[in-house]
Amino acid sequence: MKKRIVLLPGDGIGKEVINSAQDVLNAIAEEFNHSFTFETHEIGGAAIDLYGTPLPETTVDACKQADAVLLGAVGGPKWDNNPSHLRPERGLLGIRKALDLFANLRPIKGFKNLLHASPLKEEVVAGSDLLIVRELTGGIYFGTPSERRDNGQTVVDTLAYTRKEIERIVDKAFQAAQGRSGHLTSVDKANVLESSKMWREIVEEKKAQYPDVVVEHVLVDAAAMKLITNPTKFDVIVTENMFGDILSDEASVLTGSLGMLASASLSEDGVGLYEPVHGSAPDIAGKGIANPSAMILSAALMLRYSFQLNDEATLIEDAVQSVLDSGFHTADLHIPEGRQVGTEEMTRLIVDYIKSQNASKCIMSC
Ligand code: NAD
Ligand code: IPM
Ligand code: MN
């Protein structure tokens, strides 16, 4: 299979972990006889420094023409005091909007033998396996331009959703629930927000179309608590943009680190973008210690969702699990035993596993 992949490293550890994903994809291409070509473009702070904008047109055009996009992370202290339109994060929001990536799928599964890496009790975390379906192109992130009024004494951010925007993400979540255990939790703040009231109405309307799915509504504050006291009660969670952002970082503690969480940002039928849930991690950028797993697992999601290469995706996921099982881990995973390795060594171990597994399969069947 021939595929053109656009890489958007971005800033901070984004630049480091994207190399890991590329190494892993090169190993997959070699082992399975695929041809993946890579084209790198700037986004975020890197693009501001080079072109004076966080999202150059050339980047948008390249993404639109690609078969899939991998994004590292954007942002960093260098640009924190820039005016809003010149912040790196604007580049990320801009590419999500330009590609109409309304559905952000964030799977969260405790890795076998890593339960003790979570600060939560092992018996609480054991068996947790959930999917956050986050609406990604609407809500308060994209309201009428935020502004300061009254000589800076008043600030305004608006939260708007259209019926269509809610319907399409809710459909996506119902379908995801059908493919899993058939349980959907819709998270909102319907006791206060009008947008949440409409969200809840739409989920209720849609129920009839998906009679095999059991639906529950939970208010976001309670959901934040239940997520870490009783995570196994959740399967698919669907929620609006900002609630989904916050809950997914919270849910990362189930896996022991934000450095483990991958995501897929999908449109109706256009190009998909795959990005770790974490950011550019300025506190560890440049040290070579970032956990590449979230980025590598995002590349696996790309193979599965954009290219339907399920065996290849599963091999990558098995490789990450196997390297962790062998006791190797990056510093973000607080495991007293085992051996701490840096980004490059972790990547090499994952690549080696991929090569060894595929080679041994060939010896048996070729
Ligand atoms: P962050 O996710 O960058 O970091 C939070 C903490 O998690 C830090 O202590 C960091 O070292 C750690 N961490 C994150 N990923 C890790 C990994 N792969 N390996 C090891 N440790 C990891 O969040 P932040 O510090 O709040 O934000 C930093 C910058 O990143 C900000 O500019 C923010 O806007 C941006 N950001 C970007 C994205 C994105 O591009 N998708 C996502 C979140 C934050
Ligand atoms: C994420 C990030 C982004 C978001 C920021 C950097 C704009 O936190 O991808 O989770 O809030 O969507
Ligand atoms: Mn986030």
Automatic annotation (TrEMBL):
Keyword Cytoplasm: yes
Known partners and oligomeric status: Homodimer.
Cofactor(s), by name: Mg(2+); Mn(2+)
Cross-referenced InterPro entries: IsoCit/isopropylmalate_DH_CS (IPR019818), IsoPropMal-DH-like_dom (IPR024084), Isopropylmalate_DH (IPR004429)
Pathway: Amino-acid biosynthesis; L-leucine biosynthesis; L-leucine from 3-methyl-2-oxobutanoate: step 3/4
SMART domains in UniProt: Iso_dh
Enzyme nomenclature, EC number: 1.1.1.85
Cofactor binding remark: Binds 1 Mg(2+) or Mn(2+) ion per subunit.
Purpose: Catalyzes the oxidation of 3-carboxy-2-hydroxy-4-methylpentanoate (3-isopropylmalate) to 3-carboxy-4-methyl-2-oxopentanoate. The product decarboxylates to 4-methyl-2 oxopentanoate.
Catalytic activity: (2R,3S)-3-isopropylmalate + NAD(+) = 4-methyl-2-oxopentanoate + CO2 + NADH
Residues annotated as binding substrate: R96, R106, R134, D221
Record family assignment: Belongs to the isocitrate and isopropylmalate dehydrogenases family. LeuB type 1 subfamily.
Superkingdom of origin: Bacteria
One Pfam family in the UniProt entry: Iso_dh
Protein source organism: Neobacillus driksii
Gene3D superfamilies according to UniProt: Isopropylmalate Dehydrogenase (3.40.718.10)
Marked site (Important for catalysis) residue numbers: Y141, K189
Binding site for Mg(2+): D221, D245, D249
Subcellular location: Cytoplasm
Official protein name in the record: 3-isopropylmalate dehydrogenase
Positions that bind NAD(+): 76-89, 279-291
Primary location class: cytoplasm
